[in-house]
Design a protein that fits this description.
Layout lengths: L22 H16 L4 H8 L3 H8 L7 H10 L15 H4 L4 H12 L3 H16 L1 H10 L1
Helix pairs in contact: 2-3, 7-8
């Protein structure tokens, strides 16, 4: 049997829904932002270094757009890290199982399911406010 010509598919085309960013894309985007800030680079500087607009860098960092392999490679070189840097922490089982309480593990699992960075930040602010306020802690303890 002959191999199909390069560039030709022998499977059905990918559904557009399959191209939407996933939680992995969000994680990679967060790592991108983290490293860029460590180097004190702006989105404009990083975009110029790899031939993209700052708007595209922003979309990658927010997890709104997926990063292709070639672009990820160029980003890694510009940020002076290996490509694996962007995936660090994805498959670390300790991230979920080392939490001391069942509720903590459940909270972490649900937090990962929040799709937008804006909602994750809002939720995080709520949790911090409860944790930092003895009055709120007492109110929640009495209610629960």
């Amino acid at each position: 049997m002959q191999n199909p010509p390069i560039g030709r598919r022998d499977t059905a085309p990918i559904d557009k829904a399959d191209r939407k960013p996933t939680w992995v894309d969000t994680h990679v985007g967060g790592r991108l932002r983290e490293r860029r800030r460590q180097l004190r680079m702006t989105q404009v500087d990083l975009g110029a270094a790899i031939g993209l607009s700052f708007k595209q860098i922003r979309k990658y960092e927010q997890g709104r757009n997926r990063i292709g392999a070639a672009t990820l490679f160029r980003l890694a070189r510009a940020l002076e890290v290996g490509v694996e840097y962007f995936f660090d922490g994805l498959d670390d089982p300790r991230g979920m199982t080392d939490l001391p309480h069942r509720e903590g593990r459940e909270l972490a699992r649900h937090f990962q399911a929040i799709a937008t960075p804006r909602r994750r930040r809002a939720f995080l602010r709520l949790v911090k406010a409860i944790a930092d306020s003895p009055a709120l802690q007492a109110r929640w303890r009495d209610a629960g």
